Amino acid sequence: MSSTFLHLSDLHLTRPGQLVSGIDPLRNVREVLAYIGERDIAPSFVVVSGDLSNDGSPESYEVLAEILAELPEELPILLALGNHDDRTAFGRVILGQEGGGDPTRYHYSQTIEGLRVIVLDSLVPGQDAGELGSEQIAWLDRELQASAPAETLIVLHHCCRLAAPAHHFPQFILRDAPAMEEIVARHHERIIGVLAGHSHQANAALFGGTLHVTAPAILCQLDFFAGESYTPVAGPGFNFCQLRDDQLVVSPVLLGDGG
Asked: Do residues 196 and 160 touch, judged by C-beta distance below 8 A?
């Protein structure tokens, strides 16, 4: 199996005209999409690992809906929710659910060109930290036990593991990562990778016997070596992903100052 797909994360979209830490998130999204459109990439699908919105407002999801409407209709876009998102507003604006989305969890499985993509929901309302919960972890186990397809990609917002030299990094880690890792390890021969966001850094490590990768953020990056402070580094980024002979190859792409 071989395919190419994109891993975007941490858009932090806002109401039109509103900035986040002096950065226009919509401008950065459009810069990334323009960069991709100018190159012969032709992805099979795109995953976006959370923090679609910065404030969970309906207006921010309306901006997201406009962006999605501009993309090719035949291109699958798989969205995950992050700690800045709001399930109800997302469900109402993006999913068209009357009254809003399920306030419990938004997780699903979709097969694209023979690859099963499992999207998890690690959002804990009102908290930066993330958690899947026992019911979702049990659901993940059942999905991985399914007979076909053999290759599976897992996507969620919160990191399961990071290899980086800053004291605040444990705050990025999924609370029940050990329970998830047990499931992943049990099925690791069928999992090509676990993709996450949240850290605003490109990072890679082993997790349950498979590759765990975080994406550069669309909004901005964070300085690995800034000690206790969260120091933003301007400029958007994303992951260019290739599946070659059932092996996942991930190449971070960092663009210039997003302004």
From this structure: yes
d(CA 219, CA 200): 8
CB–CB of 174/130 below 8 Å?
A: yes
Q: How far apart are the first and last CA of the chain?
A: 39
- Nearest Cα residue to 133 out of 102, 90, 179: 179
Provide the 8-state DSSP code for 31. Answer: H
Strand-pairing partners, residue 218, are none
Compute the residue count for the chain.
259
Please report, for residues 195, 241, 246, 247, the alpha-carbon distance to residue 191 in angstroms, rounded to integers and kept in the order given. 11, 15, 9, 10
The model's pLDDT over 19-72, given as tens digits with 9 standing for 90+, comes to 998 999 999 999 999 999 998 888 999 999 999 999 999 999 999 999 999 999
User: Six-digit token pair at 231?
Assistant: 């120091």
21, two tokens: 């830490």
Q: Give the C-alpha separation, 172 to 212, whole Å.
A: 14
Between CA 215 and CA 100 the distance in angstroms is 28
β-partners of residue 247 are 244
Residue with tokens 């938004």: 106
Q: Which strand (E) or helix (H) includes residue 152?
A: strand 152-155
Q: Say if residue 5 is exposed, middle or buried (CB neighbours under 10 Å; 0-12, 13-18, 19+).
A: buried
Record the pTM.
0.94
